[in-house]
Amino acid sequence: MGGVCETQLARVTAFSSHLWMEGHRLSYFCCKRWTPCLSRSCIMLLLMSILISSTVVGGLQVIGGNITVVQGETTVLPCKLIDSTEHLTQISWQRMTKGNPQNENFFIVLDKTGPQFVNGRDERFKFVGNFNEKHASMQLSNATLMDEGIYTCIFTLFPIGNRMTEIPLNLLVPPVTSLKGHHPTLGDNEVVLATCTAAGSKPPATVRWLTGTLAENVKPTFNSYMHDNDTTTTVSSLFGVPTREINSRSVQCVVTSAASSKEETLSITIQVLCGYPNTFQFHM
């Protein structure tokens, strides 16, 4: 009689798509008709049917992503529920950001009433998903540094409850650039000739100089300052001895930022004054 139970168990294993229902049916059949197999085979069959039932429920996934956007641009916070046959009753969005450090609900979607804001409207957010397809993505336009943080997408399912995922949103901030000449007076001591600044960038910008044939006559210094909002200002100064040889020579400051697809090049002509400052210049 034990062999009969093992045969039934093998049949259940072969037809995996019906394993859960078959497990319950066979366990009942085995235990009622062949009581001796209850000791081991039927118990294993019952445990297997319970395990398969849990796996089917646990097979669903909420798919999100890690999103990066440049300040002022538009992005999508992706969220989709897959491998689920449960009834969807509600989609919810929460956020914990620089602008809202406390986690809060800010958007819900209901089957009958559709999408709606909660705790105040923010028209920059737009629901671009599809409730019936269990697609919950949100579009954010004109993103700012205050939007950076963690967004949580939540599906409320009957009868299993909530399933969710977190979507980190990272902001890139392009720098504000400037290049200033200092117009030193002719002399023998090393002074600042020009200063290049890449202000308020996230992540920090990279600054370098193109000095051409002046490479042996000048040298750069670099300093960075982080601000409370996590942006950084990078300042680079070009030092050299103000001589006739460097007067009226051009140099370039090149700024590279992860927030921009192109390098920015700023040019300046070094001007060395003769005599007292702000009186007259060399013209060579």
List the helices and strands and how they pair.
Layout lengths: L1 H13 L4 H15 L7 H18 L2 E3 L3 E4 L4 E3 L2 E3 L4 E11 L6 E7 L3 E4 L7 E3 L10 E3 L8 E10 L2 E12 L3 E6 L9 E11 L4 E5 L7 E9 L5 E9 L9 E7 L7 E6 L3 E2 L5 E2 L3
Parallel strand pairs: 2-11
Antiparallel strand pairs: 1-4, 3-9, 5-6, 5-10, 6-7, 8-9, 10-11, 12-13, 13-16, 14-17, 15-16, 17-18, 19-20
Short description:
The chain has 284 residues and is of the alpha+beta class.
Account of the protein in words:
The protein starts with a helix and ends with a strand. The protein has 284 residues and is α+β, with helices and mostly antiparallel strands. It contains three helices and 20 strands. The strands form six sheets. Strands 2-11-10-5-6-7 form a six-stranded mixed sheet, with no helix packed on it. The chain has helices spanning 2-14, 19-33, 41-58; strands spanning 61-63, 67-70, 75-77, 80-82, 87-97, 104-110, 114-117, 125-127, 138-140, 149-158, 161-172, 176-181, 191-201, 206-210, 218-226, 232-240, 250-256, 264-269, 273-274, 280-281. Mean pLDDT is 82; it is low at 1-57 and 279-284. A hairpin with a 2-residue loop joins strand 10 and strand 11 (161-172). Helix content is 16%, strand content 42%. Helix 1 runs antiparallel to helix 2 and helix 2 packs antiparallel against helix 3 (41-58).
